[in-house]
Amino acid sequence: MSTIFKNLSDYDKDSVPDASGMKLAVVVSEWNDNITGKLLKGCLNSLEKHGVLKNDILVKFVPGSFELTFGAKKIAEENEDELDAIICLGCVVKGETPHFDYICQSVSYGLTELNLSYDIPFIFGVLTTNTMQQAIDRSGGKHGNKGDEAAITAIKMARP
Question: How far apart are CA 158 and CA 160, in angstroms?
Fold first, then answer.
């Protein structure tokens, strides 16, 4: 659903399972870090608000959104038996070349493949926007924070 019709940070708190005892990983793109840093902050705040302890959250950084899938795969290989979900946060802003299309398609396909290959959910918390202003609006601005949404999605997928 378009964020024009729904704020990314609005959700029914009663519909979110208790996340106490959960262990999660968050893989964050360093590219567009002015945006991904805000996504990470929103994600961590939401996880902690629902009972996840700081010590039970593993945060790893990768250079860009394209590298999210490999970073998430490595974390899964090393920690699969310990993790309840892996959240991937990134931001791709459309430019003048088709690079945007290749990156967005590759990341979405890669995370889909990981979801089918492992017994834990991989959460797509990647902003794919036409402008930097749209990214700002979705990383704590007027449309909420995609990091909040990714955290809630991870909790719901890990504890359906």
Answer: 6
